[in-house]
Amino acid sequence: MNTTKTKICSSCDSAFSCGDISVENKCWCNDYPPIFNLSDGGDCLCPDCFKEACIDKIDAYIETMTPQKALQNKALSLPKTEKLIEDVDFYIENGNYVFTTWFHLKRGNCCGNNCRHCPY
């Protein structure tokens, strides 16, 4: 059964595919953390706008983070996603993967490796 739909982004008005023809009720957006909803009257966002909205929401949350808050952060209670997303979970610098604060918050503890973005 083909579950792919063509939608129009409620932010930039571009057309994009929603859904995945290989897995019913699965969409590319399911790889992103479920950190906000579009119940404010908006509809789906295209992949670029969705990624930007996630990054903005995560950045606003991280600005409130302290080492004490990190131990009981919201990211720990979210469903785990299998896919790491560039600019959300990591970025590449000089050919090296650099994990973001969000990635560390999802992990839930300090690994002791003196990571650049460790919130603990």
UniProtKB/TrEMBL annotation:
Protein name per its UniProtKB record: Cysteine-rich CWC
UniProt organism field: Flavobacterium pectinovorum
Pfam families with a match to the protein in the record: DUF5522 (PF17653)
Domain of life: Bacteria
